Amino acid sequence: MGSRAEIVAAAAKVMREQGYAHATTKVIAQTAGYSEAMLYKHFRDKTDLFLSVLGEELPALGAALGELTANPGRASLRDNLTRVARLGLAFYLGGFPIAVSVFSSRELLRSHRERLGAHGPKVLLDGVANYLRAEVSLGRVNVATDVEAAAALLLGACFQQAFLATFEEREPADLAGRLADTLLAAL
């Protein structure tokens, strides 16, 4: 593992333990065993590091959505929705301890929102909606389906379950198949 990967892994660890707002680049670099200067050789700032943590340390929900949108018919609709739900649950479960502190102040939230831009949380909802549109074009989802609402129902349920599991300090229930079945009945 190179210095960049070690810094991303350390950032994930520190951000999970202290939250984004309280994780400093100095502590992240020290945890990785590097200087802050080395951290800044790889990352522009803490937000850049945060995006790397989301993309590299948490389950690859975005990549899976891109793959499913490009090849929706490769597996059954139920299997695809279950995969999305499973990855969504894992993504939010891993991301809660990291991102929740972004909401600790309006200024931090505004700054973070401006920096994330197109990489903000809506990108996942759009990814699920795009995947569902691909399923509509295959005839496996009813053409009258509101794909944005269906995406919000699926990821919203994943988000809520991850929130509850994080709040209660417990493992989340394995609801992926049940969430898929429930959504499938409406599609």
From TrEMBL:
The keyword Cell inner membrane does not apply. Pfam families: TetR_N (PF00440). The chain crosses the membrane at residues 84-103. One of its GO terms (molecular function) is DNA-binding transcription factor activity. InterPro entries: Homeodomain-like_sf, HTH-type_TetR-like_transc_reg, HTH_TetR. Residues 1-61 form the HTH tetR-type domain. Keywords: DNA-binding, Membrane, Transcription, Transcription regulation, Transmembrane, Transmembrane helix. It comes from the Bacteria. PROSITE patterns: HTH_TETR_2. Residues 24-43 bind DNA. Coiled coil: none annotated. This is TetR/AcrR family transcriptional regulator. It comes from Amycolatopsis eburnea. The lineage of its organism: Bacteria, Bacillati, Actinomycetota, Actinomycetes, Pseudonocardiales.
